[in-house]
Amino acid sequence: MSSLVDYYNDFIYKNKLEERKGIEQTLRKLENGENVILKAPTGYGKTTLTKILANAVERGNEVGSRVIHVLPLRAIVQDLYIKLMKDSKDGKIYTRSIGAQDMDYFSSPFFMKKVTVTTLDTFVMNLFKLPPVESRNIFNNYGSHYELPRAMIYSSIVIFDEAHLIGEEGRPLTAFLASLRVLSEVGVPIVIMSATIDEGLEKTIKNYINVETIEANDFSIKRNITVSKIDDPIKDARNQVKEGKRVLLTFNTRRDAIDSYMRLRDLNPVLIHSKFNRFDRIELMWEVLDRNTKLVISTQVIEAGIDTTFDVLITEAAPAHNLIQRAGRVARYGGNGEVHVFPFRGKVYDEKEVSDTYNRINNGVDDSLLVRREYKVDNTLLHDLTVIDSIYADAKRAKSLYEQVCNIVRDTSIILGFPPHSDSTMFAIPLSKDEAKKLIEKGYSLVPEGRSLNTLNCLQLQMIKNSILGVRIKGYSREIGGILE
């Protein structure tokens, strides 16, 4: 059995699954040497593709020897990794060589596992000769083994999942497109997946690589979703829970989510956002998946990769693709559901875009909300990255570029925040560069203790060069996560 379609048929038959023609068509395209954009609705089961390819790379095929699944958020990496490991243990996936690599997981540092789940940041750094696992060596001029992860990438099938989030404007989009271009030029099989790729992003991608679009139209769940606008999300959440409904309450900022959690504590809600440590986030995720949890309060981390369903979504107004993803958690497996949208509170997203979306939601929260956007690409950075990929450029050139722009993937760097009395990265939380700067300026110590910095410019790079792990935060609570103020 060497055909990818044979592995598809084997997986569907043995696991008694309904056929997914979109996935089958994707596999056929890959075998024909074509790249694919797979547009499939929420609940379609896109990650079945990764599981099928995992079996193919374990048992043998002619397309790739590994699978690298790239995601935009660490929380989704964790969720998918756990699912793949469970399926491996249950015998659905034939290989045990499954790893995850990001700020939390270090089981596939050079992408040598048969299946690696990783973030865009880690993938891009490995592709462009700056493997994160050796960052201290690189920036202290000790060299690195950068061609090892690159060799693994170039012999893999690469899946970019939740592409609507990967394709955020600015450096993430530019790094994504640079990756697509260099991978495509050497024939690495590429799959780009999302439920909400708008026409503008799809066109932008097609400006850089040859790729075929497959729209998965073979799947439909009978969902009856009513949409309404409300003013008081706290009152609404309380009423819905009292009626026995399972409710997802979503905000655009962590502070608003925490404030609402404190006001609704008597309902025993589960709070989830980006500033929980790895261990608590795993436990919280299981609580979110538990149908007995009647109220979940969340930020954007709930938007992708969370396979659970709610009766009611109460959400702050947001851009169209964010709302569509959030609404995808309602009646996910069919039936009736409600989406209640309250006014935008003015943070995180562009106010004009959100206002336009909010004014159009009377007709429903679905793909009709998506409008064509024009995406801006940093062509200078894209050119510099593609030059680094050439055999004539070594890690010194990549290092020089990183020092020049401070981060080749994000417009703001991620710094680790350590709770009092712990220097273990296992208990650290992610901080933005600005959050870390504020803490340092207020006198919070660096980790390890006794270290100092001469400048806060290009903060993440300065920490790497000076062997600093991160900065101390005010506190940490299992209930509400990191406490910064």
Itemize the secondary structure elements and their pairings.
Elements: H1 4-14, H2 21-31, E1 36-39, H3 48-59, E2 66-71, H4 74-89, E3 98-101, E4 115-119, H5 120-127, H6 135-139, H7 147-154, E5 156-160, H8 163-166, H9 171-185, E6 190-194, H10 199-206, E7 212-215, E8 223-229, H11 233-242, E9 247-250, H12 254-263, E10 270-272, H13 278-289, E11 295-298, E12 312-316, H14 320-327, E13 335-342, H15 351-360, H16 379-389, H17 395-405, E14 414-418, E15 429-432, H18 433-441, E16 446-447, H19 459-465, E17 470-472, E18 475-477, E19 481-483
Helix pairs in contact: 1-3, 5-9, 9-16
CATH level 1 name of the largest domain: Alpha Beta
- The Rg value, from CA coordinates, equals 22 Å
At the fold tier of CATH, the topology name of the largest domain is Rossmann fold
| Global outline | globular
| Total of DSSP H or I helical runs spanning 4+ residues | 19
Domain Helicase ATP-binding: 27-215
Protein name: CRISPR-associated helicase Cas3
Keywords: Antiviral defense, ATP-binding, Helicase, Hydrolase, Nucleotide-binding
Domain Helicase C-terminal: 233-376
Question: What do you see in this structure?
Answer:
- By secondary structure, the protein is an alpha/beta fold.
- The chain has 3 domains: 4-215, Rossmann fold (3-Layer(aba) Sandwich); 223-369, 3-Layer(aba) Sandwich (Rossmann fold), CATH 3.40.50; 414-483, no CATH class.
- The chain is built from 19 helices and 19 strands.
- It has a 7-stranded parallel sheet with strand order 3-4-2-5-6-1-7, sandwiched between helices. It has a 6-stranded parallel sheet with strand order 8-13-12-9-11-10, with helices on both faces. A 4-stranded mixed sheet has the order 15-14-17-16.
- α1 packs across α3 (48-59) and α9 (171-185) runs parallel beside α16 (379-389).
- The longest helix is centred in the N-terminal third of the chain and has 16 residues, at 74-89.
- The radius of gyration is 22 Å and the shape is globular.
- The N and C termini lie far apart (58 Å).
